Amino acid sequence: MTWNISFLFILLSLALSACTATHEAVETRNGYSLALQESGLIKRLGQASFIFLGEKHDNEEHHLVQAAILQQTLTSNDGVVFEMLNRDQQPVVDQFLKGDISYASLPHKLKWAKSGWPDWTYYGPLFKAAKDARARILYGSFPQRDLKDNMNATPDDTLPRHLLDSLHTQIRQSHCDLLPKHMIAPMSNIQIAKDKLLAKQLLQAKGQGRAFLIAGNGHVRKDRGAPYFLARQTSLKNIFVLGIVEDQEYLGSNDLFNRFDSVWTTASVTGKDYCSDLRKKFGK
Fold first, then answer.
1. What angle do CA 149, 153, 155 make, to 5 degrees?
2. Domain 5-282 falls in which CATH fold?
3. Domain residue extents for the chain
4. pTM of the entire structure?
5. Closest CA to 123 of 74, 188, 70
6. What does the pLDDT average to over 135-147?
7. What value does the mean pLDDT take over residues 102-129?
8. pLDDT at residue 127 is higher than 70
9. Cys-Cys with 159: which of 85, 163, 250, 278 at CB 3.0–4.6 Å?
């Protein structure tokens, strides 16, 4: 299959330079594989032990970029942690990796249609890439009942005050300023609990190779996401974070390169009014 893809890739090497190197829009008929090689990203990934691949969940192109990266880089020594999987689903994934469950039946066994995540066609190729490489797959989230338990918990090693305030602001803004004030701290507690779990699972997934994380951009932020908690247990030099964002976020943000080592931008998903849906949910 041939691709005709227009993309803007912006690379920041914090360890090597204090400035950014910008790669202008490139047209390629060989798809993301060639683009990844020409950008130098594959080389950067090869130098890291922990690789964070962000996403906007409902943007199909973000998952195409992730799939191309996994297909080019995964080995049988590596592991992949998915934010989209919870602990209860791990036995199903283990059966899939052993060949006891077929790829075609995997979404049914995972009850994907009821999970709340976007279409299986976005994520299925990522699972297939991991199995084809004989890599491990690990869950990265809690079952729903455990998420509720984390809402009112007081994290024992929470974020510093300024980072916690930043997280509260993001939670509020991402819910279009519609979230009841008393719900902001509990939602932040869930975010922190998930970030800590993701860091723990990445250490488990690494084994003798590397560990990859597939998660939303909010979870892969270096400043206060899963990389923040992972850095407490390993060297920052071993961590590489790729934010995959929409062009609107890139143009509207001044601190993307504080959050990520590199940024890949795509076109925005159009025709969706997220705030309208939330207003209906909250009756406003």
1. 130
2. Rossmann fold (3.40.50)
3. 5-282
4. 0.85
5. 70
6. 93
7. 97
8. yes
9. 163
